[in-house]
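Supplementary Methods, section 5.1.

A reviewer requested that the exact input to the structure prediction be made available. We therefore reproduce it here, unchanged from the version used in the analyses.
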Amino acid sequence: MFKLKTKEISIDDFNKEKVDINVFNTKINKPLKKLLVLVSSIYLKFNKFKVIKNKLPKDIYKKPCLILINHVNNLDLMIFLKMLNKFNYHIVTADEAFINRKNFLTKIGCYSVIRYEHSPIFVKRSYDIVNNLHRSIAIYPEAMFSSDGLGGDIAPQFSSFVKLLNIPVLYLRTYGVYSKTPLHNSINNKNKISSKLSILLTKEEVNKMSKEEIQDKLSNEFINLNYYQDHIDLGLEFNNNRHADHIERFLYKCPKCHNEFTIIGKGMSIKCSKCHNEYIINKDGTLTNTNNSNSLIKDIPTWVKYQKEELRKELKSNKYNIKDIHAYVYAYKNYKRLYKLPYEAVINVNKDYIKINMNNNEHLLDLRNAYDFCGKTTHYQFGPTLITRIGDVRYLFVLKDDNGVAYKIKTAVQENNKCLHSK
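The structure derived from this sequence is encoded token-by-token as follows.
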């Protein structure tokens, strides 16, 4: 994976930067794409990648389709390059991915979108790809990697997007990728990976079903993803004996004493520094409590569920409040470079707003519909990161504390918006 080139910059020089985002190129560099498919195929072969055979209609490759992909880690790129080789497609790509690599990504068919924000420019571009260029669109509807080994929410308006395109919906489902390289520590396990391409909705079904029915079907497909269950079903193992390293980036609350940000993960041990409650991760992904064999927390998905239930209680009682989060500030207005600004930020969050104090200014962002607000448990380069937009500037706030704060904020935004949209 490419590293982002960063550069320190003065405030005056950053203010002079021109805004230039939302790139698109209709011309795909076919030789470059073929080379990438070849490199990806060789790499995946050495990593024991297997294609799960599934018969599809022969004409499916010739007509535009919307191809949904579950998002696990950076191996996804190689997998879809190999699996979608027969399709003529463009790839919806997160905005910040274009920094330093705009030319490369546009040449292989990528076009930018701000997470979950289906702006008029993005929607029109997608419509033109399907109806004028007669190409398919590949998209990660979860809009971010799986940081906890579980599926994510899709945008609440996604079914409107599906209805507008009015084309078959396919699903490229990968297996074993999280078990091979979990995002919270990126430590490699010697596990097999596989992928299957199937039809989720035919064009006739897209026409016939209501937006609500489509939204429910697609949401359930992704929100119910459980890579730990895949791990057990496929008979995989966490064989590097380091799966717990940095697991506190998403397991932030002790299920015994209920204190937050006291979890320490190391090797295969997850321990609370406050009450010393300890779990050992077994190679099949289940948990053993060294202090209490009758513990109700038998696996990591159950722990995550416990955290969400506790978080919902905080949100409902208006007790959700995280104060004085200190962060380094990176920003960009175009894709030339990511700049490190000469000041830090102090961030305070409640269920409705995030208050960011930086450079003697206070910014108050409404989180009640902030689906483009992204909390990354770990940015592959920086660690825990909050990503958002203020005006024409996109900010990456790299948190000083490498704990579960970013994950908790991200989850709270999603849970709160879920409640608001269900009313």
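The chain has three domains: 22-233, 247-315, 320-422. These observations are discussed further in the main text.
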